[in-house]
Design goal:
By secondary structure, this protein is mostly helical. Helices cover 65% and strands 6% of the residues.
Length: 657
């Protein structure tokens, strides 16, 4: 077996337990010592680090240990013929490598680690007595050790560790690399953080590069006075940015497919069928129905249809509850803010009111998000990804109302374009500044507070307040850092939820009111250039290494971006109608007719452009067809050999008779 040597010396998993001294005679029954021995027996490399108040068990796995775990998990990996086959350690040379040369991706390695450490089970014939200080409990037959220690609150946490060599390299080539402001080492990001985070940064980088065109166009409109031609230039700008948004959406799909092909990941034809890495499917209902009805296909089909439509009705009911809550509870608050903003004369007071308003809506959204998470539990979603998408739609609905209703109020009711521009400037500046401030200071404040609590606890144990307690170990510093989690529904989503939400709200703001404030695209471009590096620095230096999540697309967020494009066609057409009427250049009837025609044409272009630009690049399609031909030829040859062998065997048996 010609296996390329892949040294797995980096410690990638940390296990946290309380620190205490164990006597030599008590080690045989001490639960932490038993856990460490089990780790070593499974082939893991173990290093124990004593922190200020906790002990940290660092774990690394040789390639063979990970390979055998991958085989037990039936992980499917790409082969040179383009087929995804179940991994077998004995046939390791038959599987393709990752872009960085490693055999397994970070997603796959993390799954293998969890399978190994959470799979430690008592296989003896009797229960085992374990001790932790003065506490004594039984490790029953067939019981998993790590879950037992977690339930006894002995194991505090299991979390992924940063690889210091790779982390420093990414800091230099990515987070602190400002010269090429949109270029990113996407393959290295994929290898280190996994698919979902890499796809987010690929999307953000492409979006920022594409923003340069409308930003330059908007700057020209702002810097030069076109006089009487201004009313002709604005429709041209509007048509240009709509075409730009349509093309961006379609070309992103092409880039997404190209990235998946480069990473040897098969793009799912249907996202709701089959099993994918990192996703747990709720197939228990299907198994129970199959057992209950057996071969009665009619009853089984009826039951599946009943479950399907019941789930759809529950989702419709939950969406209706959210919409009704927005209309009855949130809409009056939003309109009151917009009205107060209109009557206030001082610009300083308006900025103060906007700041207070942005803090207030965070509170309202937290409540709405918690309600959404509870409602989703009663929906019959197929998997965790579908639940997360349902949460995205509901929470974005809340934010859509909060972010845009005040702007709609100024645009549609008052038709005051000067006030509308001021509102847009304040919203963009204040919201982006607040978001970046909270995003970058909160992790540091949480980290500082955790260090303060640990120091205080240690000083109370010593009974002295003199001397500064230092955190010497890197693993302890990582443990004290906050995790990369979502502000809403963290059991369904990670921190990318907030990052994507920020980008989507910005996209809606600059697109739906493009004719009123073309300079907004320049603000968005500058913000995104900063956002890429700030998010990279946050992930590499301020937070723990995120738990990898598998994803092949940006999911529900792409549908939201496409919805915002359609909304922007409608809102900008309305703005142009009122702008021309306000200037007195057109009568409202012909102006409205002309712009309605333009609106319908743009909508047709929006839905027809997908036919013009294919989602899959030609080279990806060619590789896929070539791989399919290889797989078909190989299967045909094996099938012919099998048939020939069976005939030969049958002929020999016949002769012997």
């Amino acid at each position: 077996m010609n296996v390329l040597e892949e040294e797995q010396t980096a410690f990638e998993i940390g296990v946290v337990v309380p620190k205490r001294d164990v006597k030599e005679e008590d080690k045989a029954s001490d639960c932490v010592e038993v856990l460490v021995d089990e780790f070593r027996n499974l082939g893991l490399v173990v290093e124990r680090v004593h922190g200020v108040v906790d002990e940290f068990i660092k774990l690394a796995a040789p390639l063979e240990t990970l390979g055998r775990a991958a085989a037990e998990l039936h992980i499917k990996k790409r082969t040179p013929i383009g087929m995804d086959l179940e991994f077998e350690w004995e046939e390791v040379d038959a599987f393709e490598r990752q872009p960085d040369g490693s055999l397994f991706s970070w997603c796959e390695r993390f799954r293998c680690y969890r399978h190994i450490i959470y799979g430690i089970i008592n296989k003896s014939q009797s229960s085992v007595t374990l001790r932790f200080d003065s506490k004594e409990f039984q490790w029953e037959v067939g019981e998993y050790l790590l879950q037992k220690l977690e339930s006894e609150r002995i194991v505090k946490e299991v979390f992924p560790l940063h690889d210091e060599i790779k982390r420093k390299k990414l800091l230099q080539t990515w987070a602190l690399h400002w010269w090429d402001f949109t270029n990113q080492p996407i393959d290295e990001i994929y290898s280190y953080f996994g698919t979902k985070i890499a796809i987010y940064f690929a999307f953000l980088g492409m979006y920022t590069r594409w923003l340069l065109f409308p930003a330059a166009f908007g700057l020209i409109l702002h810097m030069f006075n076109f006089g009487s031609l201004q009313l002709l230039v604005l429709p041209i700008f509007f048509i240009s940015i709509i075409l730009w948004a349509i093309m961006f959406s379609q070309f992103w799909k092409r880039k997404n497919n190209a990235l998946l092909a480069r990473w040897k990941i098969r793009y799912p034809i249907r996202a709701d069928l089959g099993y994918r890495q990192g996703m747990e499917w709720s197939s228990s209902q299907s198994i129970e129905i199959a057992k209950k009805w057996g071969t009665d296909k009619t009853k089984e089909r009826e039951m599946f249809q009943r479950i399907e439509w019941f789930g759809r009705l529950m989702r419709f009911r939950n969406d209706a509850i959210i919409i009704f809550s927005i209309i009855c509870l949130q809409l009056p608050f939003e309109l009151a803010y917009a009205h107060i903003y209109e009557v206030i004369g001082s610009d300083i007071m308006k900025i103060g009111l906007t700041t207070i308003y942005l803090f207030a809506i965070q509170f309202f959204t937290q409540i709405g998000g918690k309600i959404s998470v509870k409602l989703i539990k009663y929906e019959n979603n197929e998997n965790t990804e579908k639940k997360a998408d349902s949460l995205v739609y509901k929470v974005f609905g809340l934010y859509f109302m909060q972010s845009y209703i005040g702007v709609f109020y100024h645009a549609l009711l008052h038709r005051n374009f000067s006030t509308l521009r001021k509102v847009l400037i304040q919203r963009l500046l204040v919201s982006q500044v607040l978001e970046n401030l909270l995003e970058n200071t909160l992790p540091y404040l949480k980290y500082s507070y955790k260090k303060y609590r640990v120091r205080s606890k240690k000083k109370r144990e010593k009974g002295s307040s003199t001397g500064k307690i230092q955190f010497a170990s890197r693993v302890e510093k990582e443990y004290l850092k906050p995790s990369y989690s979502a502000s809403i529904g963290m059991e369904l989503e990670d921190g990318l939820f907030d990052d994507f939400l920020e980008v989507a709200l910005q996209f809606g703001m600059i697109m739906m009111f493009a004719c009123a404030f073309p300079l907004a695209f320049a603000f968005a471009t500058l913000n995104n250039i900063t956002e890429i590096r700030a998010d990279a620095l946050k992930l590499l230096a301020m937070l723990r290494r995120p738990t990898p999540r598998f994803s092949t697309t940006i999911g529900a967020w792409l549908n939201i971006f496409q919805f915002l494009v359609v909304m922007s066609i409608c809102t900008n057409c309305a703005l142009l109608v009122w702008l021309y009427d306000e200037e007195g250049k057109w009568k409202i009837e012909p102006g409205l007719a002309a712009i309605l025609v333009m609106e319908h044409v743009l909508l047709l272009i929006k839905f027809g452009f997908s036919r013009f630009v294919p989602e899959e690049p030609a080279w990806v399609k060619a590789d896929r067809v070539k791989d399919a031909a290889k797989a078909e030829n190989m299967c045909s040859k094996q099938l012919l050999r099998s048939i020939s062998g069976e005939r030969a065997t049958f002929g020999e048996l016949k002769k012997s008779q």
